[in-house]
Structures
1.
Amino acid sequence: MKATEVLALLNAPLLSETDVDKYLSLLVVQPAPLTDWPEPNSPLEHILFSASIFITSRDACEPFRRELHRILGTQNYQHLVALLAYIKTCHGWIEAHPEVASEADQRVINHLGALLEEEPALAEFFGNYQERVKHEYQSLAQQLAKLAEYKHQRQQAELKRIVSKTARLQKANKKLKSKEKEHIAELEKINEQLRHEIAELQRIELQLRRKEQELSDFVENGTIGLHWVGPDGIILWANQAELDLLGYTREEYIGHHIAEFHADQAVIGDILQRLTAKETLNDYEARLQTKDGSIKYVLIDSNVFYDEEQFIHTRCFTRDCTVRRQAEQALKQAYNELEIRVTERTQALVKANQLLAEVRQEASKL
């Protein structure tokens, strides 16, 4: 490791909460387990070393421990933890014993000179290290003192506020007691009014319940078929007239897809598509399959009930026009047969006229 890199590492600021999220997200996407340690100074090695810092953090340690253990495997993870524990122990012991001279350490003797020659700024860092640590501790102590003073001031201010509020509450309580009788009389008057209003509301509620029952009976037992269909095409409700029209029970009809009862799938597909597009259908002709296998011709009027732009269900009226349609078909068939007969008679008359003309021509020759 170069001297400039050592100095940059020593002067590097503490990682922030943003760095915590960053390195955790980078760990999560790494494949596991690693078969070999990453190349020196590679991005993955940087991620692993940076993430290792958070192992000793009380708040963020568990996610990093889990991911590092997953990536490194049990043995390499234990080696990493042992290394970090050793570094932390040495660091704490040196700080607790400032009288220890690092110059006597053989590793310092062997390597420090070359590092200082390569990066002179390291000498200033090591020369001011104890003073820097002392200054940081003093700064922290001052901050803690300021924080304690701030808390004390806040507590005093809060105490004054509570005392003032208590005095105001006591004064207000006296006023309330002096007006207690007046308020009780007023409340009794209001209570009497409320009793009358409740009785009136109960009467109105009873009327509404009767109206609701009448409306429900009108819808359920009316002569026109009614049903609701959800946005997924499932029948949500149908009245008795609809069930009687097709011959199904409620269990056989409600809860099924509406397309099951249409003889023409293209027609029901068009109906659902147009209703989804917020169109209103009037006298839309369709063919329905009854339970006994026969076909019913119906006219459909329908639109959609929306709640804040959300498709809730359709409102569909189904009118039986089978008799009329059969009459129309019979009339059309009779008209076609009559047209054929007229054509045949016309052709016969044309032939007869041609024959008569030939006879007259022969007669004139005689």
2.
Amino acid sequence: MGSEKYPPAPPDHEREHLRRGDAFVKVGDTHSAVKEYLSYCEYLEHHPPAATLKVAAVRKQVLMLLPDRRDVRRSLAENYVQLGLVDEARTELRRLISEWEAAGNQAARAEVLARLEKLSPSPG
């Protein structure tokens, strides 16, 4: 049985956040669109692992709208790890390292660097 916070939804319910997000994008309300897209991701994260690919795709869409959302970039990297897309995860983590370095946040940079180092080395 579903949790109190995430009751079982009708099949079309999960896509309602995407529809609203798309509508907000069309009228130029980026922040409301991102809120809807991230609500969709949150909903899917409480459902079967098959949702991970959908969540990654939506997070990538959010980053196209608001590329400075480091929390979303970090979550996307973790989605990529779950999907076995290690090279993509490395790419996102390297971007985060650069962003934190530019922002002068060495502690956050070090934390992301440690996560990057835990991933298997890239070939070549």
3.
Amino acid sequence: MSRDLYDIKQQLAEQRRLQEALDNKLTFALTQIDQNVQSQTSIMQGSISGMEGMIRDQQQQMERLNQQFQAVSVTIESLARRGGINGGAVQPPGPARSGGAAEQAYQTALAQSQQGQHDQARESLRQALELNPSQATRIDILYLLGLTMMELRELDSAEGHFRELITLDSADPKAWASFERIAQIKRTQGDNATALQILRAIDEQYREQPTAAQFGLINIEQVRARIQEIEAGSAGAAAPPRPTL
């Protein structure tokens, strides 16, 4: 009997040892699982944080692009309301203007510009603006002054003159050309996003009303080529174009 009790005790002790070993293994396994879960959770949280950052960056970029698009749209809508773009046929040039001090100063500046004398042309054009020109002459002066400032690499000033022209009479064909010149300025300054928005707007409006470019101040194929260059990311900083006089 004593031997039997001893054997039973030994068996119970062995079972307890085995149970403790199993419990230890189970605890270790559960710990490993918990650590893996925590590690995966940390990785997932990091990935989620990274994705959230990317989403925020994309949202900010979209917001900037939307603001630029709205700025372009305002200009387009302004032109449309005033009949310059998609709001009616472009008005043909007005009747020939009579002479006058402002007109003579403009013609002098035109000749100087054609000869590459851009500094002298700028002064002649500024003088012409001070001589109370007619609206038609003022449009010519502003357009040539914008081109002249582009030649002199004074791009902000050039853009200001083009914008003033668009505000003065958006129905004039040179308003279209001024809009394209602003896109070229933006591209030169590295603002391809704004340039692309403007060029796309020109192309879209041209498709709806192709006769709007009938005066030859816009080369729509060049506009589309610039769109493709910017979209392909292959265009460098473009130099301002030579004036079309």
4.
Amino acid sequence: ASLRMSQDGLRLQVQNGMDLFWPKNEVRWDQLGTITQVWLRPTEAHFELDSFELLQQAEQLGLLRQNWYPHQHLRKWTLGIACVSALIIGSVYVLLPVFSFSLARHIDRSTERKIFAPLTRPLLSDSKTCKNSEAAAAMDKIVTALLPTLPSDIQPKVLIVDWKMVNAFALPSDYIVFTSQLIQESKSWETVAGVMAHELQHVEKRHNLGGMIRSSIASLF
């Protein structure tokens, strides 16, 4: 079979003498590496040619103006938009923690308490507070011992909630929450004191506030 091109379209001559012709508006060209795919409408039959010269010849004859270039430009635009979107999203999620924790460090603690204390209290209001006076007294003693190591503007407020899980976490407005299960499963009060020191570091470094700012901004994307 032989393939010939003209400004009108594509002509294919096969061995049995049959002469097939497709107008240029019924031919679509795709270039995949070194393979040229030629799609023939309306049946979408296609064949492949291992030659880039054919594509160059079709370009010189003007066969690609309506078929190849719009398709190629669309592909380039799609790829470009995808790359730019990935770059923006990647930059946001890489720079977001840096921005969030930097912003948190510049917020005055009194301002933080005014903003977040009304939000933090309802969050814990549905929790059953542990009424163990021995545990509460021990926690107050631990906080009193650790308080001199903290900046003077930190006013830790420790809550023990009756949750059946081993956990402790810090919240904005200097709240530190311990679960009763963690205290019960701790081997000693020294272990609890170590957890308290860890959570107070989160409070001092503003990790809790920075995490909340980061989550709020990330929810917008």
